[in-house]
Amino acid sequence: MNRIFKSLALTSVLLAGLNACSVEGPGVGDVTEEIKTPLMAEDVVSGELLVRFDAHVSAVLEKAGLTKSGINAPATRSGVLSVDEILSLVDGYEIERVFPVDPSTEDKAREAGLHLWYVVRFSQDAPVDKVAADLAKLGEVSRVAYNRTLKRASEKKAMPLTAEMVRQLTAARTAGSDPLYGFQWNLNNDGSLQNFLEETEVTKFAAGADIRAEGAWAKCSGRPEIIVAVLDEGVDVTHPDLAASMWVNEGEVFGSVEDADGNGYAGDRHGYNFVKATGKITVNDKYDSGHGSHVAGAIAARNNNGVGIKSIAGGDGTPDSGVRIMSCQIFSGLYVGTLLDEVRAIKYAADNGAVILQCSWGYTSGTANPYDWGQQFANDEEWELYNPLEKKALDYFVTYAGSADGVIEGGIAVFAGGNESAAAAGYPGAYGKFVYVAGIAGDFTPAIYSNYGPGINISAPGGDQDYYFEYADEDHWVGEVGCILSTLPKHVSESGYGYMEGTSMACPHVSGVAALGLSYAAQLRRHFKAEDFIALMYETATPIDQYMTGVKQYKRYVADLLESSPMHSMDMKDFKGGMGHGQINAYALLKAVEGAGVEMTFPNLYVAVGGQTTVSPSMYMEGNAFTVSVADSSVATAEVVNGMVVVKGLKAGQTTASITGSRTDKFVITVRENANGNGWL
Predict the structure, then answer these.
(1) Are 184 and 310 in contact (CB under 8 A)?
(2) How many Cα atoms within 13 Å fall on the side-chain side of residue 15?
(3) Domains along the chain with CATH numbers
(4) ∠ Cα 155 160 163 (to 5°)
């Protein structure tokens, strides 16, 4: 995907210097020029650089008013004489902070050093490498990084399900059932599948080669306080199977130019379009594939609504069930997102309540054909050298998403494993803190396209169109029945549904199961650290190495279908031990949640002077009747109103408090002049 043409031998020399001086810690201004400026790549964006200033320069930049970001925020001067002197030589110089100030999370951003990063824009005619080298010479600058274009995980188009098919199946459904559920082998695989409306039974399925969703649903169907951020194309927020599953930022108006909640992003009711810098999520730009909507549907399409499909964590048909989808749009038709869009989306997700980052995109595996893809990153250090801000943003999500008082402390980042049939993973998913997903077919065999081997953590159904090549008729795509059925925008599929395949489709199965597991933890009032919950996902995976025997045969690219065309094959023993810990297992995960983690306790609360905050005590303890008391009522008051604890700040200070339901918990109320909301998820 992203080609790097400079010799990585030089990179290894540069990396050796990383051990001698930190690029993020104290004394960062002494970093060598070579380390401060990474090597050029083909995907570098002209006229833009990402610059990290030393901490002592931050006050100057903030005094100049560079604390916002967005289309109306850039300044034409930084206020730093040396920087302005260099950049005055290029046309159209602008500078703005990468991450806008969100008062509720600014303390976390500063702790992570994200406030020191700025984007500098200038004439696209200026040599970006020359400007980068000049800036890197300055003592005020600790790091210079290129902004890079992103690439979708797959260029394959969706295979629409016909409207007539959906009409027939909907008419034949039983009351309240989801008419397309019978084609979702990924959720319920009994070893066979009827081929559309024909009498032909599709083979190459194995009983139990699914995510064990039905057993899990008997325990939990998903809860709305668990939010999954989908970094992808936009999600169709009006789709009849998705609309009720969208995260809602109360008080914001979809697509408005007003930032009602002051988080730095205007009109972000269901998420944000980072490509176009607007709260209006789009799905119908030219060349939009429906990828984001398809991914979202696999996670949280509404269950038991009599419409379309089921999903992993789409609830039980009642309004207050099912997890929520936050659309963080980083691709849009021909508008290719950049690393800048990505990192803003990642931080936004963490700051606005998402605890799972769903990423069906990434870089090509390092072992992919170098003639096609170029050499890639060999290890975490090399990746960070080229992409320091990307790593910082992802580390921010892993560290600061969730809450120490809630279901999960830290966030879970889930990445698609790549579709190059390569024996190693690519970045950023290969970073050891993330969950990296391979794709399998409906009989536990690896999908022919899936990457495997080192770096892969777990497997999930991704579909395998080439493997099911013999199943088709005049109304349907070859092999589609062996792929993943999910939601699509109307301009992609008239019916609103269709098939896709790839590790892009495997990835949301893992995100969805993680969301369902956290929902069950919330139901049981259990708390986990992110790394412990990820370990539980791995421990409960279904072993699949026993299926890595013999030879798997297929027709290449589903176009090579003549009787005289050769069959292609995969030796299964090559994949043994290479598909991670096994296939994600929803039922086993939920069973394990019952005896894991620690009991949640009522959280410490932060409130502004003259402000108030509201918390549901039933999230933390059983009972229908709760009482609350405050030690120092001059600092804050607290009362139970309609089952909710309402805390009001009176003056700056701290006081202890207690709440009694099925047990008594003590907590602390902190009142600040400008409170940072600590959240309680």
Answers:
(1) yes
(2) 17
(3) 8-148 (no CATH), 181-248+264-306+336-368+390-593 (3.40.50.200), 601-672 (2.60.40.1080)
(4) 165
Distances (CA, A) of 434 to 22, 103, 465, 510, 576: 23, 28, 28, 12, 22
Q: Specify the amino acid at residue 49.
A: L
- The 10 Å Cβ neighbour count of residue 45 is 18
Q: How far apart are the C-alpha atoms of 335 and 48, rounded to whole Å? A: 16
- 3: Cα separation from own chain's centroid: 24
Q: For the chain, give the percent of residues with pLDDT over 90.
A: 61
Helices (H) and strands (E) in the chain, counts: 16, 28
CA-CA distance, 673 to 608, in Å (whole number)?
5
| Per-residue model confidence as pLDDT tens digits over 194-237 | 655 455 677 789 999 999 999 999 999 999 999 999 999 999 99
**pTM of the predicted model as reported, rounded to 2 decimal places:** 0.89
- How open is the CA angle 307-311-317, to the nearest 5 degrees? 55
Tokens of 157: 């188009």
Q: DSSP letter string over 224-244?
A: TT-EEEEEEEPP-TT-TTTGG
Residue 62 near residue 99 (C-beta atoms within 8 A)? no
pLDDT confidence bin for 16, thresholds 50/70/90 = very low
Interval 513-552: pLDDT, tens:
999 999 999 999 999 999 999 999 999 999 999 999 999 9
Residue with tokens 């969208």: 246
Name the amino acid, one letter, at 454.
P
- Number of Cα atoms under 13 Å in the Cβ half of residue 328: 27
- Where residue 103 falls (left for φ over 0; alpha for ψ -120 to 50; beta otherwise) is alpha
